[in-house]
Design a protein that fits this description.
The chain is an alpha+beta fold and 223 residues long. The protein has 7 helices and 9 strands. Helix 2 crosses helix 4 and helix 3 packs across helix 4. The chain is flat, with a radius of gyration of 25 Å.
């Protein structure tokens, strides 16, 4: 298995990840499987003195390193499917960013699953704002216009979820427990290979588009 992997034509990012994982595997059970751990990790035994079963860690590996390796490769390929960027380039970028142990760097909170097919892919923030120059966004909770893509500053008063029925100025955040209530957009920044969830730019709002068209029609009829 090791020979096959070494002979594969892979990117520098793949190689650096592979070396890190195989180093841990060698110090542990001294085996590696790119499709995930395939050796016995735990053993369940029933003790004579009681009827309950007890779990024993029988592997020499401290973690399921091969499972993590497979998760990382699968996640990079998932990002390719959603963004159109080659998974090897994505993995290379992640590995260049990584400055600590891969077990801690590669996690759902750092490389989240992209649960939509509508991802805005841009090089950086500058390119994003060149596509959406208004720099105005729609808060998914109060429906007001905010100039912050992640935290509502619309000034609109609403009954907040933790406000006990009182109306207060909206402070909804895209990074909160309920996210953007399906009223946001995912943006993938190619410069740092990061996925962010933000409020919807007003340029993408059908209501705003309709208002703009109606305004233009009124202006044309008056001319």
């Amino acid at each position: 298995m090791e020979e096959q992997i070494v002979k594969q034509e892979v990117s520098k990012g793949y190689d650096s990840l592979l070396q890190s994982v195989m180093r841990d595997c060698k110090e542990g059970q001294d085996c590696f499987n790119c499709d995930g751990c395939n050796h016995k990790f735990y053993r369940y035994e029933q003790k004579k003195e009681d009827t309950s079963k007890h779990c024993y860690h029988v592997s020499k590996c401290g973690h399921k390193y091969c499972d993590k390796f497979k998760w990382i490769i699968d996640r990079a390929k998932h990002y390719q499917e959603k963004t159109g960027i080659d998974w090897k380039d994505i993995l290379k970028g992640w590995e260049e960013q990584r400055t600590y142990w891969y077990e801690n760097f590669y996690q759902e909170c750092n490389q989240p699953e992209i649960k939509t097919d509508n991802v805005i892919v841009v090089k950086n923030r500058e390119e994003f704002f060149s596509k959406y120059p208004s720099k105005k966004f729609i808060c998914p909770y109060c429906k007001g216009i905010t100039t912050d893509p992640n935290s509502c500053n619309s000034g609109v008063k609403v009954k907040l979820l933790n406000g006990k029925g009182k109306e207060e100025i909206c402070n909804w955040c895209s990074g909160g427990l309920f996210g953007t209530l399906d009223g946001g957009v995912h943006v993938f920044l190619k410069d740092d290979l990061r996925l962010i969830l933000i409020f919807k730019p007003i340029e993408l709002s059908e209501e705003v588009k309709q208002e703009a068209m109606q305004s233009e029609a009124r202006h044309s009829s008056q001319a």
